[in-house]
Every structure is written in C-alpha cells, then in structure tokens.
Amino acid sequence: MDKKDWKGWLYLLPAILFLGAFMVYPLIDVFVYSVEEGYNSASQTFFGIGLYNYSYVLRDPYFLQALKNTFILVLITVPLSTALALLISVGLSSIEKLRDLYQTIYFLPYVTNTLAVGLVFMILFKKTAYTDGLVNLILSFFGMTPIDFIDGPYWAKMFVLCFYTIWVVLPFKILILTSALASVNPDYYRAAKVDGTSKLRTFFSITIPMISPTLFYLIITGFIGAFKVYSDAVALFGTDLNAAEMNTIVGYIYDMLYGNSGGYPSFASAAAILLFAVVLTITCINLLISKKHVHY
Amino acid sequence: MNVAKMEQKARLRKTALKTLTYVLLTFWALMVLFPFYWMLLSSVKSYSSYNSEYIPKLFTLSPTLQNYVDVFTTVPLTNYLLNTLIFTVVTTAIMLVVTVLAAFAFARLDFRGKNLAFTLFLSLMMIPGELVVITNYVTITNLDLRNSFLGLILPSVTSVFYIYLLKENFAQIPDELYYAAKVDGCSDLGYLLKVLLPICRPTIITITILKVIECWNSYVWPRLITDDPAYYLVSNGIQEIRENGMGRENIPAMMAAVVVISIPLILLFLLFHKKIMEGVSRGGTKG
Fold first, then answer.
1. Under an 8 A CB cutoff, do B238 and A119 touch?
2. Does residue A232 contact residue A250 with C-beta atoms inside 8 Å?
3. b/e per residue, A206-227, with b = 16+ CB within 10 A?
C-alpha cells in the first residue's frame, strides 16, 4: 500500500471503528447468542449449542401474544394508513389555496416525541373515576356505551394502538406521496382531459400506475415499520405491556433483555432473529408482487 | 338538455368536489392539531378544575401556570432536559465528524478497496437496529458504561444513511474545483474544510436536523442503558413521571411536562420545516 491508500482508510477509520463495534460485531454476536443454551449473563457461561432458545421463545405464551398483536397491527395499519395517505395526498394536490399550510400541519407528528404525544392520546381515550374521557363522551353522543380504551377489552385497546400508529406514520407517507403525485407529467392528464376521460378513470389508469413505484416503496417500508412498533404501545399502555396484553415482538425482545423479566439475552436474540426472518420473508413477498404490478 | 344546463351542472359538481376536498383536508388537519391543543389546554387547567370536569371543557377561562412551576420543582424535568441536550449535541457533533470524513473518503479520495468498502457500508443500511441492540446492551454493560453519557452516546453515533446522503452530495461537486485547490497548494483536508463543506452546507444542515430529531426522541436505547433517573432523557423522563412522578392522577402537571419537552422540536420544525420535509423526503424513514 502506498501513501494514497493509507490516507483513504485513515479518513474512513472513525466510521469503521463505530460501525464495527456497534453494528458488525453485534450482528455476528446475536446469532452466537441465539444458539447458546442456558446462557447466564452474570457468569457469562452456557451449557451447550442448539436451538433450544428458539423453541422456548416459540412456546412462550407472551411471545405468541406479541406475535398475534404485531400481525393484527400490521394487517390493519399498513393498508389503512397507505390508503388514507393516498386519499389525503390526492386531495392536497388538487388544491392550491392553503396547500402549504395543510402540508406543514400534516407533517407535525413526525417531529414530535412519540412517548409524549402518546400520553395525550391516553388521556383522550382513558376512562377514569373522574371522567369517561373525551372520546367516550363523543361516542355516547352517538348512543354508545363508554368503554375503557386503555384498561378495557382487548379490541378497544387494539383500536387505540392502531389509531395512534396510523396517526404517527401518516406524515411520512403523505409527504412522500404528495411529492410523487407532483412529479407525474401533466401531459398525461391533459391528454386524458382531451379524450374526455372521467376523473375516476384518470386516477386509476394514469395516476396509480405512475406513482406505483412510490406506493410500493411505502407499502414495503410500512410493513417493516409496523412490525417494529413498540414505543407507541409503551406510550399508551405503560412499560408493562405483557400485563396489558398489548406487547409487540420488539417489546418482547426488550423485555427479555431488561427490566423485571429481563436478563436473557439468548432468548432476546432468538426472538430478534425470528422477527428479522418474518420481516425478510414479507419484504421478499412484497418485492415479488411489486415486480408484477409496478410500472417503471 | 341544452349546453348551458350541462355546463352549469358540471360547474356545480366541480364546486361540490372542491368543497368535499377542503372538508376532508380540514378534518384531518384538526385530527393532527387536536392532541396538541388538548395538551396545551389541559396543562393550564388547575388540578382541581381538571378533575371536577366530568365532561371536559374545550376551553378554560382561568388558565394557570402552576402546573409548569410544579413540573420544574417536584420532578427533575430540568435534569431530563439538560441530559437530552448534552446527549443530542455530543452525539450529533461526533456523527457529523465521522460522517463528513467517511463521505469525503468515498467521494473524493482514491484508495485500494474503496468500492468494496462502500458496498459493505451500503449493505449495513439494511441491518435492523433490533438485531444489534442486544449485543450492544451486553457490551456496554460489560464495559461498565451503564448510566453514563458515554454508554448512551457511543452506539447512537453511526448512521450509514447520512454517509451515503453526504457522499452523493460531495460527488456532485465538479472535479475542477478540487484540482484548482490542489494547484493552489491546498491539502485534502483544507479542500474539505474550506471548499466542500461551505458548498454542501444545505445537506449538512439537513442531516444535522434529522439527527437532532432522532436524538431528542430516542427512547429504546436510553431506556435499556439507564436505570438511574439522574441520566434519564426526556422520553424516559416522561415515562417515569407517568408511572412514579406526580401521582398518576395529576394529569394537568403531566401535560405541562409533555408541553415542555415538545416545545424545542416544534420550534425547530417551525423554523426549518422546508428543510426538514425536504430532507425526510430524500430518504428519511419512520413508519
């Protein structure tokens, strides 16, 4: 190596040190942990190598609960949030007055602290001895009986979690979709107008195909993001998510690592790898579908 | 039907559609803004008046700032804010140095193994944080760095994506500038500091703001690595306030704390919303 080579690597050195210590090494290590049976974090010893950690996690009722919650959350929030974001973005691009204002307002949740705003959602939905909460009052106005959305029945809690998750992820989707809609060549619309094509038909035959790459990008990242929901749930239901029956896979991983139920990095690693496998599979399926339907 | 009537009908439909659009957009804008209004409103209601409202009032005629006094005196909110500030500033500063140097090496310098290294860097972007956090937790615990700023900061520094973003920007700067600087006797480092950085300031500002937002809101890593409230950041602080702080029922005070920790980022957003939105649409993720 001559001087030039050394220089390049020298500039890269800080990045390599940080990435090596906190990304590459942990990545290898997590697989090692996941197969070390009976690992004891105090003495750093283990009995043997095998797949026991995986089978333990897969039989753990808390993990199965978390898996179920996460799948329900993903299946509800991803389609709903994408559709809602599309509707709002189309509305946004059809107006001129106040457009910037609306766009700025819609983006606000992106920069706010999920934990902090989650508390506001909690008090809006919570039923206490003092008050039924604002949401329940609105519901009772429509003749429904008040439900405790925070400590009450499973589906009420799931509803709030989905609602809050959608509220949190919409800003990003709206932003990306609005810029995709703005980049569609207006000549297509003019041609459709000359041909007297209806608005609905223009939307489905021109707009959707033109923005389909962006749409699929959002669906793929949406799936990945929804599988990792955690802090939204903590914000609403507190740190003991197992007790609230509202744990997610990521929550399960962290609970295994730390806190009252913690101290089991092996189980956490096995759960993390299982999550990674699920996300990877879903992403591959998404990519395969998108190859068939996306027009570039 | 004659033409005039058809035209009138079409105009009417257009107006109706436009109105519907505005109604829908305004509805969602209210959905976004309402939680912010509600936290602000609840934070200025007194404890007794908040709890006596079985039907919550949508406004208050006797606002009080007592809750704000309370959150600064009864819980260590100042401490949480200060910790977050230190964490954010130091993490962002180290991130900038590391990122600028690496991006410069990839964009401008020639060395053996550069392409391979760049591919490896890019592939790291796909690694989910959940996979590496476990070992990082064990590493930091073994290094005895729990409940310390070093333990909080070190694993939070790296962002492969920002290196990529800045490298793309550096690569757009014409080669002629580099050779001209070289002819004038400028060193590589001098060229980076005196020419490249000023030209690429917009991108630097974008990644700085995005990192600041990320740091200010980070929750998972700080929660894992700190259990001493003296080192809590705001996210953990607010969780602590909720579970053990001013009593679970003192919601107005809790909301005051929420307002206080939300204000810095909302201010940042109001000042830089164009830059932030542009930066995020160029490749931020979340959700």
1. yes
2. no
3. bbeebbbebbbbbbbbbbbbbb
Of B286 and B166, the one with more pLDDT? B166
**Residue among A115, A128, A280 with most chain B CBs within 10 A, to mutate:** A115
**Rounded to an integer, what distance in angstroms lies between the CA atom of residue B163 and that of residue B106?**
9
Domain boundary assignment for chain A: 1-50, 62-293
* Alpha-carbon gap, residue B249 to B241, rounded angstroms: 11
A:246-265 residues touching chain B, CB 8 A cutoff: 250, 253-254, 257-258, 265
Q: What is the interface size between A and B, counted as CB pairs within 8 Å?
A: 264
Tokens of A241: 């998510």
List the domains of chain B with CATH numbers. Answer: 67-281 (1.10.3720.10)
- Check residue B253 and give its pLDDT: 87
Q: What is the pLDDT of residues A224-246, one digit of tens each?
A: 999 999 999 999 998 888 888 99
- Those of residues 134-153 in A touching chain B at CB distance below 8 A are 134, 137
Indicate the Cα dihedral angle B23, B28, B33, B38, nearest 10°: 90
Verify whether the Cβ–Cβ distance A254 to B224 is below 8 Å: yes
> Over pLDDT 90: what percentage of chain A?
52
Question: Tokens for A92?
Answer: 């946004």
- Contact between A167 and B31 using a beta-carbon 8 Å cutoff: yes
Asked if residue B160 lies in contact with residue B95, where contact means CB atoms within 8 angstroms, the answer is no
**Contact between chains at A113 and B235 (C-beta distance less than 8 A):** yes
Residues of chain A in contact with residue B36, where contact means CB-CB under 8 angstroms, are 108, 112, 117, 120
Q: What does CATH list as the number for A62-293?
A: 1.10.3720.10
Give the nearest chain B residue to A28 (CA atoms): B132
On whether any CB of chain B is under 8 Å from the CB of A26, the answer is yes
Give the ipTM: 0.89
What one-character-per-residue DSSP string does B32-61 give?
HHHHHHHHHHHHTS-HHHHHH-SS--SS-S
Q: Report CB contact under 8 Å: A254, B21.
A: no
